[in-house]
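Batch manifest line 376
LIGAND: pyridoxal-5'-phosphate
JOB: complex structure
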Amino acid sequence: MTINFNEPFIAGREREYIDRVFAKGGFGGNLEYSKKVQAWLAAYTGARHVLMTHSCTGALEVAALVLDLKPGDEVIVPSFTFVATASAFARVGAKIVFCEIDPVDFNMDLDDVARRITPRTKAIVPVHYAGVGCDMARLQELADGCGARLVEDAAQGIGAWLGDRHLGSIAPLGCWSFHETKNVHCGLGGAIAINDPALFQRAEIIWERGTNRQMMYRGLVDKYSWVGLGGSFYTSELLSAFLMAQLEALDSHLRDRMALWLRYRERLQPLADAGRLALLQHSAAQRHNAHALPIVLQSADESERVRLFLKDRDIQAHIHYVPLHSSPMGKSMGYRAEDLPITEEFSGRLLRLPMHNNLGEADIDAVVDAVAAALA
Ligand SMILES: *Cc1c(COP(=O)(O)O)cnc(C)c1O
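JOB STATUS: finished
ARTIFACT:
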């Protein structure tokens, strides 16, 4: 019996809600379910405005267009992240400035961010790794000091909080993913939170394919036209209906997931105490969503050895992420692997263990026993 790395969550009412879309007959975007999802997300997270997108990649692309970056403008992003965090800003011509991570939680190293700020820094993009929130207060100070905007990549952050603030609702712009590898999903999906009301009109035009159609719906203009740059960023009613069913089950999903996460950590703690591996740490204020179960081995070779040992026992563990600065694209931007030594080292040492709501306690015990056997 294989223990899969991820099994997409199924809440139960997805088909019923999709049937309602068939009954109503509107399959496009920005209809009843999309609006319901947007209102639900705004109420749950405290975000000022929310627009559904086809992915978190799309949400980050909207954010990059909203900021109206010019060639030569610099955007600081961690190298340890998914491609989209950097590519969304690179494709509007910004210069990507990669920063290091802090091996305690694998979030941006804020001292390193401070060192990389220049007069051309226009945006800083914190990634809340594994749903553990970055220090947004300190980041806001750094951003205010240089006149940059913050964009939260909260792709992994639905259901996760920093104190009483939901991830993605704190910075002027925040982005969530509803890809099937995230806690709740609709196959492919995302959303952008616009928390600074001054950015909303521009964001909505970009999201509406560069038109002011939404203003026509609100009676502000008689007919809509092309008013700026934009793209096709929304998602279909079918996916929004699916997502609505998932969001309604979010709190119970998170409770179940946290119970599994806590069992994992309890079983792994003796290995950490013995110095065989390290576990990511967070404070009580970093109220995460049990998104992932990363462990840090003593070297990249050992991480690979443990991964293959688990694979032989039909347990899927994954490495995460291959650093962006030393990727072919990063190299074409002039980076060398040795420019970010901490990212190089710790990305190699990190291994993600299976984490999804279909795991049973026996599965978790089997995974931890296999890790222990690999390290014995
Ligand atoms: C998953 C993920 C994304 C991309 O999300 P999509 O919805 O697949 O586009 C971006 N950033 C991070 C940190 C992610 O984990």
